[in-house]
Structures are given as C-alpha cells and as structure tokens.
Design brief:
Layout lengths: L7 H23 L3 E9 L2 E9 L2 E10 L13 H17 L7 E11 L2 E8 L4
Parallel strand pairs: 3-4
Antiparallel strand pairs: 1-2, 2-3, 4-5
C-alpha cells in the first residue's frame, strides 16, 4: 500500500499496537523474561513477542484495548488467530533450529489510556 493510501485510523491503530507491545515487553522483562524477537513475520503470520523464560520459549500474543466497545482483549483471540500463532511459532522454531525445547503460548491484555499503556492481565499458557 502506498503512503498516500494509508488512512489516519490505520496509522493510529498501528501506533496503539506498538505502544501496547512496548508495555508488554517491559512487563515481561521486569519478570525475568528475555525478549528474543518482536513482530517476527513469515508467510504464515506474525508473532508479537517471542521470549525465553527459564529454558522455555514463550510466544506472546499482545492484545491492546482503549475501551470496552469491542469486548475484552481475551475475547478478541479467535480460534483462527490461535491456529495462526501456533503455525507461525512452528516456523520460527524450525527457522531458528530449535528442536525439542519446551514451548508455551501466553496472552497479555494491555489497557491504553491516553499516552499510557498498562498490562492488565497475563494469561500464562493461554492456548
């Protein structure tokens, strides 16, 4: 998409997503997670955050909301999204030569208020 085709709403949504992911990464780092990748992409999709905690690879889906109009962050994770994240994680593991390592899928809910982003929930082993 060319720059002139982008809409202000899309740019604002992307900025909010980035703010939420930054808050999520800081939250995890403060709890001993080592962030390995942010917004890792391949043909099957994107991984918001990839981290390692005590020998376990953790794939983190970050869901940000500025209000409750569209439901909770947890409600926004569909079966299709779960499948996509799992498939993309498999590609990540394969491309990085990671074999029989323990893995886990977490989800972080982030509340956006003005210029602030706060992690409100951390679902460990969410799916």
């Amino acid at each position: 998409m060319s720059n002139e085709m982008k809409t202000p709403g899309r740019d604002q949504r992307k900025a909010k997503g980035t703010m939420g992911e930054q808050a999520a990464a800081l939250y995890l780092e403060e709890r001993g997670y080592h962030i390995l990748a942010r917004n890792w992409r391949c043909r099957s999709g994107e991984l918001d955050l990839v981290a390692k905690q005590k020998g376990t690879f953790v794939f983190i889906e970050v869901r940000s909301r500025s209000g409750s109009k569209y439901g909770t962050p947890a409600e926004s994770v569909t079966a299709r999204k779960i499948t996509q994240v799992r498939q993309t994680a498999a590609v990540y593991l394969h491309m990085n030569g990671i074999g029989d390592a323990p893995i886990r899928f977490d989800m972080l809910a982030v509340q956006l208020t003005g210029e602030a982003a706060v992690v409100t929930e951390h679902f460990i082993d969410a799916f």
